[in-house]
Amino acid sequence: MTVPTLPERYLTPADVAELLGVPVETLYQWRRKRTGPRGFRVGRHLRYDPSDVRAWVGSLMEGAA
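Request: output the structure for the sequence above.
Response:
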């Protein structure tokens, strides 16, 4: 059985916004509408797993094809 490893670093909303080229507020709007990449809270801080962001972008690309 393979144990999944944690990513080098979880992404902040600013990191994801920069990667996607959108304002941070857009990420928060997507989160409220449950349409953006899956995020999680660490205390009061929002973080994103890089593999979840990749999967979300991939699903958008599949829908566009």
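The mean pLDDT is 90.
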